[in-house]
């Protein structure tokens, strides 16, 4: 699969007012970092960026052309104005092919578990895991087939096997499990109370329907 290419230019450090004007012109301020802690401010076209990275996750490595020089990077963070739904700033992390990187990779489940077909409920506590590997080994996503997952069975992080990739999450974390919903408890208390009332009714007086005793004459 071909990599997404983004075009950027270097930008000088700007004041807040200058940055607002750049955004008003459709530009997107950004910064690219490297593993040495060095940073470089850059500027992208906001519309081009939004179209190019729709659906792109942190684990997707992009090609970034800055002033005509191409490098590889992935998106580390995005700052969004949630009230307006607009993107304010993007942080990139530069990738070196011979250096291991850490990234979060999403987990996608496929198939319908046997336990679900038998009436159970599928729960998915973990939706992504953190991994460490060389850039060439970084998966875009992790797919797990849960078709054989029975009732009261689960898949843990330790069950995920990826070549040349180390998963940093605890191996005991549950990724998927099938549970049966608990049946509602029978209303034992109400039934016991009703039985008690029924047993006590005849003792309170004459039996229902009994004729009154005849009056004794002197």
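^ Assign residues to that structure.
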């Amino acid at each position: 699969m071909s990599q997404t290419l983004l075009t950027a230019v270097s930008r000088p450090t700007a004041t807040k007012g200058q940055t607002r004007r750049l955004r008003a012109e459709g530009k997107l301020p950004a910064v690219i970092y490297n593993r040495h802690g060095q940073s470089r401010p850059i500027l992208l076209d906001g519309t081009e960026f939004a179209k190019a990275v729709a659906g792109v996750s942190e684990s997707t490595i992009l090609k970034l052309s800055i002033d005509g020089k191409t490098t590889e990077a992935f998106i580390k963070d995005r700052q969004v104005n949630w009230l307006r739904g607009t993107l304010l700033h993007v942080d990139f992390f530069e990738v070196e092919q011979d250096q291991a990187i850490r990234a979060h990779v999403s987990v996608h489940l496929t198939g319908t578990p046997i336990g679900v077909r038998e009436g159970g409920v599928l729960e998915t506590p973990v939706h992504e895991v953190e991994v460490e590997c060389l850039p060439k080994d970084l998966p875009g996503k992790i797919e797990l087939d849960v078709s054989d997952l029975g009732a009261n069975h689960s898949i843990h992080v330790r069950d995920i096997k990826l070549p040349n990739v180390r998963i940093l999450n605890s191996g005991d974390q549950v990724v998927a499990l099938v549970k049966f919903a608990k049946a509602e408890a029978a209303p034992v208390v109400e039934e016991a109370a009703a039985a008690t009332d029924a047993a006590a009714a005849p003792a309170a007086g004459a039996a229902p329907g009994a004729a009154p005793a005849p009056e004794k004459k002197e």
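Confidence is low (pLDDT under 50) at residues 203-211.
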